[in-house]
Amino acid sequence: MAVSIRLSRGGAKKRPYYKIVVANATAPRDGKYLEQIGTYNPLLAKDDENRVKINGERASYWLSVGAQPTDRVARMFDKAGIKERQATNNPKKGEPGDKAKERAEEKAEKAREAAEAAAAASAAPAEEAPAAEATEESTEA
Question: What residue stretch is flagged as signal peptide (predicted)?
Fold first, then answer.
């Protein structure tokens, strides 16, 4: 049986309050659990000491017998000094999606075409101008 340490939601609508519980991995989020080892109240200020309360002894025990904390609970354990959490690495986090890449390519193509058109337009009058000057000189002579 896989055991996880996770949050179980309680409280009223738009007023969440969580219990940190040890539960069977297949049990529902707010369903039956083996033991409650702490609480988390996200409505309190981040520096409030009552925001997260964890029974460190019981948390250490459950970790020692193989219980796996969820990412959010692992963050709480890391702050409390119960278990160090490895930093996650997501190299694709800042990378745009497929549609955004397509739009960027289309925009770059349009910009290239506009630059080529502008270069062609600026080159054409420069070629005509010397010819016009030459005709003026020939008419003056």
Answer: none
Residue spans per domain, the chain = 3-80, 107-141
> Considering the entire predicted model, what is its pTM?
0.63
Q: Can you read off the two tokens belonging to residue 65? A: 């017998």
Per-residue pLDDT of the chain (141 residues; tens, 9 = 90+): 699 999 999 999 999 999 999 999 999 999 999 999 999 999 999 999 999 999 999 999 999 999 999 999 999 999 999 988 887 788 888 888 899 999 999 999 999 999 988 888 887 665 555 555 555 555 555
How far are the Cα atoms of 6, 11, 25, 83, 85 from residue 32, in angstroms, in the given order?
12, 17, 11, 25, 27
